Amino acid sequence: MGKYVIKRVLLMLLTFFIIMSGCFILIRLLPNVPAQQFGKDMNLVLQRRVRQGLVDANGNAIPMIQQYWHFITRTLIGGDWGVSESLYIGQDCFKIFLGKLPATMLLNVYAMIFSVPLGLILGIYAALRKNKWQDHVISTGVMIFVSVPSYVYAFLVQYLLCYKAKLFPLVMKSGTNYMTWSMFHSMLPAILSLSFGSIAGFARYTRAELTEVLTSEYLLLARTKGLTKGQTTRRHALRNAMVVIFPMIIGEFLGIIGGSLIIENIFVVPGVGPLYVNSITALDYNFFMLLSGFYTIIGLASGILLDLSYGFIDPRIRIGSKANGKY
Questions:
Q1: Which CATH architecture describes the domain 98-272?
Q2: pTM for this prediction
Q3: Residue-range domain boundaries for the chain
């Protein structure tokens, strides 16, 4: 297991390095527009670019290979992601990022707390009522909610619950008092919009896995020994089904962070998502590189944690172990 973990981490770092290198090269090929319509002090911009290794003291661009070396040593190794040149002129990009991160993380944590229990309950109920009208209703709803993009739910929630029913504000409340009731109340439309797809996904996988387990031979043997259907479901079926379902919960939590980018923009959540979109439209390349690295590492880490979680949840699974002298 240890060798497998080390191998996967090294491959993750290599993949991250390749993706970030590709982003850097593509960004440097684009025209850098230090236009004065952004209200920048061009002398300060020149000083920042000299420090970042993009131009020399006279403002002339240095060779790409030298820019790339400065990027590796200053950013990927040194952790200095530079300062903003458009959105937050002169402010450190990483500090701004850390200030935006709590809103994004809290939104996704609330969405998972809401969607995981509800999705599991619907999936278990559908599996226990297989081929009955309850199962058909849940399965139809799951297919609809899985197929429709999350931003469609966001518009429906805004129109029906915020505009018509006036149960929630149209956008999230400003400020950083995230643990107050008023802030949570303003976040609920975004939480609901982000949860619909996750609930449908959890219900679908739970129903499929539990249905397969309930029809297995060892459960039929348990029933013949005198256990009731409820006892076999609780003691055997759910435990074995969770071997597949629980890792999906871990992967979904990490993957949903990337999926909340659009939802954050619609409900004006002061998180990482709007910052990423604005960095592209404002040509703030330092922010773009930082946030591209953030979303890349989230996607790579979710894949590793998803694979490793199987071995920790089910002791019978030994990832990377040898069987009959072969892997």
A1: Orthogonal Bundle (1.10)
A2: 0.77
A3: 98-272
